[in-house]
Amino acid sequence: MSLIPLILDCDPGVDDAVALALAFGARDRLNLLGVTTTAGNVALNNTTRNACLIRQVAGREDVPVHAGLAKPLTREPILADDFHGPEGLGHFPASEPRVGPAASDAIGFLIQTIEAASPNTVSLAVTGPMTNIATLIQTAPETARRLRQIVVMGGARREGGNITASAEYNIYADPEAADIVFKSGCELVVFGLDATHQVRGTQAWVEAIGALKTPMASLAADMLAFSNALPANLVDTSEPDQPATGAPLHDPCVIAYLLAPEAFQLRPCRIEVETQSTLTRGHTAVEFRPAVAGAFNAKWVSQADPHAVLSLLLRYLA
Ligand code: RIB
Ligand code: CA
Q1: Which of 31, 24, 103 lies closest to 56, judged by CA?
Q2: Domain 4-317 part of CATH 3.40.630.30
Q3: Model-level pTM greater than 0.90?
Q4: 91 labelled catalytic
Q5: Ligand 1 pocket by Cβ (under 6 Å)
Q6: Using CA atoms, how far apart are residues 72 and 58, in angstroms rounded to an integer?
Q7: 89-145, pLDDT tens digit by residue?
Q8: Domain ranges of the chain
């Protein structure tokens, strides 16, 4: 089976770290061309350092890390360090990685790498605010449209929101960027909270992954445990009367989709994003009815198989 050429744009972040671990581990399936970082959960210098640290633990310093933009297109950065810890990797000690980021910036790397590949071959996974990708589309729209697909974690329909009652964090952090991506004409697969809330890192998952005893598995288990220990007033539980069954594995779902698309169900839709309102900033309006939507612009992930995601983690963190 030929390798899937992939670039991962992220804002590590504890769940980004698990997504990186999965992508670094699945070297029999993925040709990970590079990792690009953006400001998001924590500041750009920390997301970039964190990506290099995860890469070091995974033993994949063959994969370049390129730093992207330090702030959203027009808005001030909004961190999510309540959910990820001040350094962005839970309790993992902040230190300087052996190998730092590459000299060239993320946008230059994206353009060069996508242009060097055959059209419709490179997949792009985005697990943070879409600032880098929107800048790529604005800078080199034809290059962006050479991508096979862009698989993003962002938005919500049935599940409302997590950073506010009506918006998911990645979209809320840079709604103008999301608007550019949704209007780009690129092939989009969108993992909203509706999908990622179906994939929860229960205590049993933490123990099963931790039992693998590899450095990467131990780090991933620590990330999941950190998320599960967040104070109740921060954690969005789908059903308030149910005890939290584990934090959602938002970002690993994106990599799991690339490895096992059959584990997910998609629905054609039209996604639009709120950029004007203060109250509903970053809300994603997801329409499935052709008569109402007019032209569709994405595929919305409606169902996710959590067991498939756990199986992939156990296989590739071992
Ligand atoms: O809402 C969840 C998303 O926001 C995840 O990507 C998490 O890492 C944060 O970036
Ligand atoms: Ca993220």
Answers
A1: 24
A2: no
A3: yes
A4: no
A5: 11, 13, 15-16, 40-41, 80, 127-128, 153, 162, 168-170, 250-251
A6: 29
A7: 998 888 999 999 999 999 999 999 999 999 999 999 999 999 999 999 999 999 999
A8: 4-317
